[in-house]
Amino acid sequence: MEKPKYYITTAIAYASRKPHIGNTYEIILTDAIARFKRLQGYDVYFLTGTDEHGEKIQQLAENSKIQPKEYVDKVADEIKGIWNLMDTSYDKFIRTTDDYHEETVQKIFKRLYEQGDIYKGYYEGAYCTPCESFFTETQLVDGKCPDCGREVTQAREEAYFFKMSKYQDRLMKHIEDNPDFVFPESRKKEIVNNFLKPGLQDLCVSRTSFNWGVPVSFDNKHVVYVWIDALSNYITALGYKEDSKENNYLKYWPADLHVIGKDILRFHMIYWPIMLMALGEELPKHIYAHGWFLFGEDKMSKSKGNVIYADYLAKKFGVDATRFYCLSEMSFAQDGNITYDNIITKYNSELANTLGNLVNRTVAMANKYFDGKFTNPDITEEIDKDLINNALSMVDNVEKYMNEIRVADAVSEIFTFARRCNKYIDETMPWALAKDEEKQDRLKTVLFNLIESIRFIAVLLSAFMPQTSEKIFNQINSQEKTLESIREFGKDINIEVGRAEPLFVRIEEEKLMEEIKQDMEKQIEEANKENEVKEEKTNLISIDEFDKVELKLGKVLKVEKVEKADKLLKLEVDLGEENPRTIVSGIAKWYNEENLTGKLVVVVTNLKPVKLRGIESNGMLIAAGEEDVRLLTIDGELQAGTEIH
């Protein structure tokens, strides 16, 4: 019988920098869903990748003095390396610089233009470079980008536009007819109320102010803007082409689930469905917008030393512990909280104590009392039935939660059952049964129930903590790893366990936190150095910044040498004010009383006063040169105090 198909995707990661744990959460989450769907018997196709075009990347490459392709090659390799480190089971990793993707994007753009969905015009408005988005004045929040809160710049350029309003009613009807198209409900309502109901504006879909992007095939001044380029990856990766559709597209499209961050829901809930409608293609079945990880109450920031990376967590805690924390801490429709203290607490209590202790002492007792090998004689008591019912209900509940993408609830269900197993040990007291010759069969039944319960846990954990799951299977020596094998309890009555080995070694919190504190301090130092380099490189200012500088003509009335300072002159300068200003300037090597008195010089008049050799200086002269310095002076009959503009 042919397996039902399941096509699942992450948003493609922007190849601007190394992804932090908040970015990495999405691939871990999607992997858990994909693995569980395979466990349920689905033919899963799992797509991820990198978004590699845009103005921001071009700027980063220029700052690094390398070509954009070289820049994104490096970052894409880094992203893929972290995805692999996190043991994610993706089937394809697409890059938007892949030739086949770029070629198909050009064809999609041309088709939309030829059928009248795209037209040429001009865009004038507020632009956020990090988000690569244009906004109207009404969409700005306190004059800043509504998505990221950063400063915006005013931009005007020729651009192609997509007629969003043409498809608005059709999209609204689709959302109304398919209430689970987008979830959680709260985020769907936010997009509907804030963007769809007020009416869609036409979408800018090309740029001319930079060239790092897919060229518009029929107008080489333009590059295809991020939305058509990046969003198309979900179909180009499957082999979608304008003139044909390859087997994977025919087999897997439409997507069963797009997993994305809540910050890009608008693009996936509005732009992407409308693009597909215009192309005459089916819409994805479901879109899930997850929350963000916060460091305590803050967003992650290098300057605060609190940016957490998955590879660092894997080094300190292990891959599966990192996966466990991410999946268990981000509740459905909520933001998650990540701090090192919380990770250590959860590691010790849930992984080392609840799970690790359960497996270790159960396998150790089986080896100690029966050399690891026995058959279940089924000496059952009422307490066993409760454990068995809990095991079977756990399977049902985990499957229910996973079908609803409530992953944290599914993980919680497994660990709740693990705690029940530990309680069962305390209730049955195998060590006491072992001392009574007449209780040996009862002891075997108890240990069998525990090992079978652990097998149930291992099967379900394979979606969330695959390496740990395999270690458990090795210790209990079982090959029964399917979801079907845990639909009933006690399938195989013969037990032969391996050697007991700790799954998770308890962490010494004080020692590890001291190491982490030192690493955080290094991160702050590195961030400060990066900021210093950026400040050195940044020499462009806006007109608003320039307008803050007040320049006026000043007439030099008096010049004196400053005592014990060979380089300094003290000037009295008339700036058209009630009293002359005193200005101290390091120009004594080139100027004196004779060649400077009476000159009209250019003065910066709104600098904060500074003291030089005990003299308060209230302004700065404008000069040129280093070896041979010359003051900027003005000829003519202009009045002292005249503004320069």
Could you characterize what this model shows?
The chain is α/β, with parallel strands linked by helices and 645 residues long. It is built from 21 helices and 27 strands. The strands form eight sheets. Strands 1, 2, 3, 4, 8, 13 and 14 form a seven-stranded parallel sheet that branches. A five-stranded antiparallel sheet has the order 21-20-19-22-25, with no helix packed on it. Helix 6 (185-196) crosses helix 10 (265-279), helix 11 (310-317) crosses helix 12 and helix 15 (407-428) runs antiparallel to helix 17 (440-461). The longest helix has 31 residues, at 340-370. The radius of gyration is 33 Å and the shape is globular. The relative contact order is 0.08. The model has no long low-confidence stretch (mean pLDDT 91).
